TrEMBL record:
HAMAP family: Maf. The keyword Hydrolase applies. It comes from the Bacteria. GO terms for molecular function: nucleoside triphosphate diphosphatase activity. NCBIfam families: maf. It holds the Pfam family Maf. One of its GO terms (cellular component) is cytoplasm. CDD domains: Maf. The keyword Calcium does not apply. The active site is at 71 (proton acceptor). This is dTTP/UTP pyrophosphatase. Its main location: cytoplasm. It catalyses: UTP + H2O = UMP + diphosphate + H(+); dTTP + H2O = dTMP + diphosphate + H(+).
């Protein structure tokens, strides 16, 4: 087993909680990067680029460590739905998802101390049931939707409206554990 430290390049409490399940000690260092979509960037390219940028930004300050970067986006009708800027935008996003299928794309990137990069992509199909306007208003009022791509957290009340999911539940939450564990095993950080 490699005796090097692991850093999670994310301030997300959900990612921290999920990575903790892998049983490898880590610290958290948030990365402050521009997460804007560039032009007509494809959703998968976007999440990989942002996950890489997060890892690189932290790796520059902690070059002797392994750094794990991740990003998750909700994609509806080919459009990336990021984190809502306000309550009105959150309501609009939830209306777009109501009664429809969408994709959740999660990327995870591991930079090793020598700068070697490995990465994985997780794509999950999620189908929402038809959501009532009164629930949308009540959910938005909780504030749970404001720091989440697509304005929902599947692990909270929004999970009550998920009719079907094909892929990675943890990828929808924000860190696909299967893919993350693959990267950690390949790097010798975990033995399982």
């Amino acid at each position: 087993m490699v005796e090097r430290s692991l850093i999670l390049a994310s301030a997300s409490p959900r990612r921290r909680e999920l990575l903790d399940r892998c049983g490898v000690p880590f610290t958290v260092v948030a990365s402050a990067i521009d997460e804007s979509v560039e032009g007509d960037e494809a959703p998968a390219d976007y999440v990989l680029r942002v996950a890489r940028a997060k890892a690189v930004a932290v790796h520059r300050r902690h070059a002797g460590s392994f750094v794990l970067g991740a990003d998750t986006s909700v994609v509806a009708a080919g459009r990336i739905l990021g984190k809502p800027a306000d309550a009105d935008q959150a309501r609009d996003m939830l209306r777009q998802l109501s009664g429809r299928c969408h994709e959740v794309i999660s990327a995870v990137v591991l930079l090793s101390p020598d700068g070697r990069k490995t990465e994985r992509l997780s794509i999950t199909q999620v189908e929402f049931g038809l959501v009532h306007e009164a629930w949308i208003d009540a959910y938005v009022a909780t504030g749970d939707c404001m720091d989440k791509a697509g304005a929902y957290g599947i692990q909270n009340q929004a999970g009550l409206w998920i009719r079907r999911l094909t892929g990675s539940y943890t990828g929808v939450v924000g860190l696909p554990l299967f893919e993350t564990a693959q990267l950690l095993r390949e790097a010798g950080l975990v033995e399982f």
